[in-house]
Amino acid sequence: MTQAQLTFYDTSRAYYASYYLQGFDELSRNGKLQIRVAHSLPERLKPAIQDTDWEHLLFAMALFKFQQGNHEWYFCIDTHDVNSVNVANHTGGYHLPLLQGVDVYFKVNHNPDQIEYTPILKDFRKKNSQCLTVFSNKTGVVPVT
User: Fold this and answer.
1) Does residue 144 lie in a domain region?
2) Cβ-contact 141, 26 below 8 angstroms
3) Domain range for residue 112?
4) How many domains does one find in the chain?
5) Is the pTM of this model over 0.85?
6) Along the 145 residues of the chain, how does pLDDT read in single tens digits?
7) SS3 content of the chain, % helix, strand, coil (to 5)
8) Which of 31, 46, 95, 125 could pair covalently with 57 via S-S, beta carbons 3.0-4.6 A apart?
9) CB 112 within 8 A of CB 124
């Protein structure tokens, strides 16, 4: 079996991803995951990340590519407290272009009711998952699997 590899896309800002990065670092030290940091944007998600209408929400996002063998998945961890989205004003907790572009969108303040009552969020509910506010590696629980 090919070793799993995780790529973290560094957006050159300090933000709330440190808990998750620490957890992934633990997995790396245990030899369970190879981690690299990329300073260039992935072509697939470049339009979403460079969308100036939504860039103010990037400070609380952690963007990754998980690759194992020939399979790769893009996912993000959204640490915003707000669990809504306003498409017209580009506000709320969700970064809509990333939600549309990634394979899985982990939301710290995940609210299934909010998703069901918001048409644009409901359209993407299958890729929207809850994520713990910390990366609990000590207990063997890894919320981003």
Assistant:
1) no
2) no
3) 4-139
4) 1
5) no
6) 677 888 777 655 545 666 667 677 777 887 777 888 787 888 999 999 999 999 888 888 888 999 988 999 999 988 888 888 888 888 888 999 999 999 999 998 888 999 999 999 999 999 998 876 654 445 444 444 3
7) 30, 25, 45
8) 95
9) no
Interstrand relation of 85-86 and 128-130 (parallel, antiparallel or unpaired): unpaired
The two three-digit tokens of residue 52, written as one number: 């100036």
CB 110 within 8 A of CB 128: yes
47 within a domain of the structure (yes/no):
yes
- Examine residue 145 and state whether it is found in any structural domain, yes or no: no
Instruction: State phi, psi for 33 to the nearest 5 degrees.
Output: -155, 135
pLDDT given at position 116? 92
Report yes or no on 124 lying in a domain. yes
Name the residue among 88, 110, 21, 13 with its Cα closest to residue 58: 13
At which residue do the structure tokens 């998952």 appear? 129
